[in-house]
Amino acid sequence: FTRTPWWVIPIYWTPIMLGLLYLGAEYESAQVMAIGFVFGLLSWTLMEYSIHRFVFHYDENIPEGTIYQCAHFLLHGVHHFMPMDPMRLVMPPALSTFLALHILAILSCVFSMGMLHAVCAGLIVGYVLYDECHYWLHHGTSQNLYLNQLKSYHLRHHYKDFKAGFGITSDFWDKVFGTQFVNAEY
Q1: pTM of model > 0.85
Q2: HEC states along the chain?
């Protein structure tokens, strides 16, 4: 249930994202769809930070010995327990679909049809890029300075200070909300 290979994520979510864009085009122009898509893509960065900080790292507030603690451990704790397990670096589709449906319900109260489709498609692309980036941060290598800094930043979250550095694909929101590491070197 909690073990998922990295390649499952794009295979599962790409057809859904394309379907959303196709359906949304029935309601909105290509320009409006593009704006909604970019908005969703950029919004993902804040959602990524928020989910990681306030959901995945909520564990100190969960009563010990409860089913909630067990569920939370399976959701994210096992990843911190075994951070280099290649099968526990991306979210299983059953769980990500469950979360996505709740996000969709909230967004459907805010956006009109068409725009809703575009924003959700952008969020999905952001999510897929995030999950693939997260996998790479644990197992990839690169000559790219930015990617190597990002990898060091994320691994510092795992091995030195799990109460800081909640951004995965960037440290932007950590800087905005003051949750970057105390010592700027990473």
Answers
A1: yes
A2: CCCCCCCHHHHHHHHHHHHHHHHHCCCCCHHHHHHHHHHHHHHHHHHHHHHHHHHHCCHHHCCCCCHHHHHHHHHHHHHHHCCCCCCCCCCCHHHHHHHHHHHHHHHCCCCCCCHHHHHHHHHHHHHHHHHHHHHHHHHCCCCCHHHHHHHHHHHHHHHCCCCCCCCCCCCHHHHHHCCCCCCCCC
